Amino acid sequence: xxxxxxxxxxxxxxxxxxxxxxxxxxxxxxxxxxxxxxxxxxxxxxxxxxxxxxxxxxxxxxxxxxxxxxxxxxxxxxxx
Length: 80
Known about the structure:
Blueprint: H1 11-16, H2 25-40, E1 48-49, E2 52-53, H3 56-62, H4 67-79
Antiparallel strand pairs: 1-2
Helix pairs in contact: 2-4, 3-4
């Protein structure tokens, strides 16, 4: 299958989402990085490799930056 060039993103939905608006800028930045990473995963839209789900630490590391800084941001996204 040919690789898709991108995904649809609706800026209006991004700024109007009430739960996302309660997140910090750092968590929102991590979320958009996660969406981009999910687009590239072998099972598009799922953090899974070789049929094994990624751990929280693997997700926090995959988006770049410091894992210890990213883990609370991941918890923030999950809670919202």
